[in-house]
Amino acid sequence: MTGRDRLQDDAPVVLRLNDITKTFGALTANDAVSLSLCRGEVIALLGENGAGKTTLMNILFGQYTADSGSVEVFGAELPPGNPRAALDAGVGMVHQHFTLADNMTVLENVTLGTRSLWRPGLDRAAARAKILKLAQDFRLSVDPDARVGALTVGERQRVEILKALYRDARILILDEPTAVLTPQETDDLFETLSEAVAKGLSIVFISHKLHEVMAISDRVLILRHGKLVAEARTEDMDKHRLAALMVGSDVAAPEVAPSEPGAALMSLQGVVTPDQGNAPGLKAVTLALRAGQITGLAGVSGNGQAALADLIGGLIQPAAGTLALADENHPHWTPREAVQSGIARIPEDRHKTGTIADFDLTENAILESYRDAPFSRRGWMNWGRAEAFTRGVIDTYDVRCPGPGTRIRLLSGGNMQKLILGRVLEAEPRIILANQPVRGLDIGAVNYVHSRLLEARDNGAAVLLISEDLDEIMTLSDVIHVISEGRLSPEFPRGTMTPAELGVWMAGHGFDDEVAHAS
Amino acid sequence: MRLEPIANPTLARSISLPFAAIAATVVIASLLAMAAGANPFAVLGLILKGAAGSKFALLETLNRATPLIFTGLAVAVAFRAKLWNIGAEAQLYAGALVTVVLGTGALGWPSGLLLPTLAVLAMLAGAVVLLVPALLKVRFGVDEVVTTLLFNFIFLLFISMLLEGPLKDPMGMGWPKSARLIPEARLPRIFDGLRLHWGFALALIAAGVVWVIERRTTLGYEMRAVGLNREAAQFAGIPVNAVLIKTALLSGGLAALAGFSEAAGLKGNLTLDLSPGFGYTGIIVAMLALLNPLAVIAAALFVAGIFVGADSMSRAVGVPTYLADIMLATALLLMVLAILLTRFRVVRE
Q1: Percent of chain A scoring above 70 in pLDDT
Q2: Residues A423, A441: one domain?
Q3: Which residue among A252, A285, A306 closes a domain?
Q4: A18: enclosing H helix or E strand
Q5: ipTM of the complex
């Protein structure tokens, strides 16, 4: 449901950005962008990675200073570069990466920073009453005394929203809010947002999930290469036109043809791994990854996906059970051995584990292969060959960057992921571990990554696709397993399960009477 | 005021800021000289003259820079891999200890054989001294800042014990000092008649070698990767623990060369004042050089010049030599600030 009918044409403008321009060196992140937001309106800011959405919102929120242009909130111009002024003016931002203190309770997190340094006391009762009232009004069910570290991702996001509402925000900016949510949690979020606009709040919704933009927004603005290329009422748009405007050309999702599965290239037999803090380990997991087949692993985040990915990636070893490649056992299983055994690993977190931010593209491209010829011989690096390899990856995988000497922290997420793809796929792997390979990427990059995975499958690779996006799993996978609390469901061939049926397994049901369900 | 990150700092910014830090240091030193009642230009002039104003002064500065290059390299290498070696002082003394134990007559070999042997064994000793904290770190997660720092005191007391006991020079009239090195164990002078020994040349070579290791070898690549992002390095299959151990061996060995060079090149014996804190000053040198091995040479010359120049300035105008310590401390703090400002700009609210 949307606020379209509610929205009157004479609703007052609450937020206005005038000709915002921001450059980083040679890159123009925002080029004379202007927009306005009315009371009770939801606008969607749509654009590929690197289109300038986040930069624009950071300027609005005062985290960056624009080179030129101004921000007006409720008719008053905001002083540039001052988040406090934005907060005081009633702008609240929910970042893509949460900014919560894990060791504190919800109440403490929400009130953090609202207290004067000179009056350190906190009227807990009043704060609790206010939080509970907000939670009820906006349907944000969360326990004020729960420790944030123990909350699910969806609950944490609710805390972030509560934090903004507690500060009496009238304008909410949500940066990719659904990237970390399950479908059910996304529905909850949309209900909250509907409540919010009904109460006269205004929302800027940043996303590149088109169906969500269509569902929630009144108006949609499309950024491309820092420029505002289109602005329209959402009802006058459709998904296809939005996608075309976003990338500047027509895009098509890759076709998925059925595959011809071959021999098992990797098999796990009754593998057990220890729990890691809150994250469950594997509980007697048996799994076969077959050549020419994409195996999808569905499940709610934090149910043992990390353990399975770490195991296959060589970071942990089975505590019990066996891991076998083709037929050989690997008692000393390390990342190096995994790479040398022909396993391509696309890590979940490309910023923290996939790349080294201050290394340039060349140094990142050879992270897994620097010890092998031709990149080094007897301990001596051959940077010429490394750079030539990187140039090849840049060309083949369409990595948009100034050159191989660029530090990778300057690349957008999609381009970073393309470099990682190039790094692992150029080695012609037999097995591909793709852990959340398209999280946070735009449509163009998503389709690109998916088509590369399908291509690898058709060339005989065994692919394990781990994703929290059930659509992605069901579209690409030839067989699906569900993981719940470290237990693996039986194998479900393509088309034999509905999302609802998979959802039952994801919720942890069916594992005890496995036989009945597997038939 | 607050800091806003700069996504891609310009080359001009990253080069000009360190120099601005040095310039600001000079200004602050001038103010202090004025406070001490002296003409700041005269004081600075005298420091410069004392550091490089004559052949004697220049050679003194080069001699003083020699151990600082070694300890600066030792610290720079370790810090590059985020191995916080604060124990260069102990490693330096380990190198000096091996030099005097074997160089006072235990090995009666000719110079050409004895000196390389002493240098290599000194490096081994320094490497072993840092190996222990490094192993504790990778095995048990013991903080190497604490272990390396505290080991300095233990090792100095150990040297003190040796100098009062088995290593005590019988001809030393009761002073806690070792016997003198045999002539074959002394580093010769580079030029006849000039008081500059081959230790300085060795230091320059070491800087070049470290630069080559960092930029051209797999070990250097591994060290930089481990230092910048240990998690990603681990994931990629870089043997993080082995890299830390190798880094520790290299770092400890470099620091030990400072002890070898001081004992065999300058002093000729071992006393407890062989190093007036070269191991700690090496941290300042490495930071001033932004951990770049070639810049370590320049930073060591700068630091040595201030020390030597301040000595002679103090004799001439009576401003205390503490000015040198203040200048170094100021330079270090301002350099840290400069590094910060290379990556962040100050935004006024």
Answers
A1: 92
A2: no
A3: A252
A4: strand A13-24
A5: 0.86
